[in-house]
Amino acid sequence: MAFPDAQQLTDLLQPRLAARGLDVEDIKTTKAGKKSQVIIRIDGDKRPSSDVLEEVSDDISAFFDEKEETGELNFGAGYTLEVSTPGVDLPLTSPRHWRRNQGRKVTFNRGDDKSHTARIGALNAAEDAVVLITSEKNEVHTEVERLENIAHAVVEIEFAQPSQRELDAVHQPFAEAES
């Protein structure tokens, strides 16, 4: 059996993690001599604590060992496993990323190579459109954007607190922002 790729491992792990309310966000594998490396980024609507990450890591390790014993997986001579949450550099590629980052500032483009910055508001029920909040001086503006129109987006690291008006807009239901 060949060294497993990221998609194969995602397909194996996603059902196990879904039972815990978690998603596989990213897997990187590196085949390297005696010690290969498997890095798994997981997340959930409730961000996993370090205790949960440790439990999941132990579970995945035992699962991989079992799969190697049956010949379903082959990591070579051995592997190092790292399980953690994604950093802020993970692109927002699915509706759950937008939902989980509501209230945070995001830099995005609409495929026009122009960079825009806004705060993430509510998603609609279909999870195909999001409220984007910008502020200029003391005015807060909201706009609705379809997720399919956003080509690339990443969360920005902020050091300043947002204004109360921005925070109020963040918590406004989608239907109110749309009107």
Automatic annotation (TrEMBL):
GO biological process: ribosomal small subunit assembly; translation
Protein name as catalogued: Ribosome maturation factor RimP
Keyword entries, A-Z: Cytoplasm, Ribosome biogenesis
Gene: rimP
Origin superkingdom: Bacteria
Domain (Ribosome maturation factor RimP N-terminal): residue spans on this chain: 13-89
Record has Cytoplasm as a keyword: yes
Family statement: Belongs to the RimP family.
Entry function: Required for maturation of 30S ribosomal subunits.
Subcellular location: Cytoplasm
InterPro entries reported for this sequence: Ribosome_maturation_RimP, RimP_C, RimP_N, RimP_N_sf
Pfam family, one: RimP_N
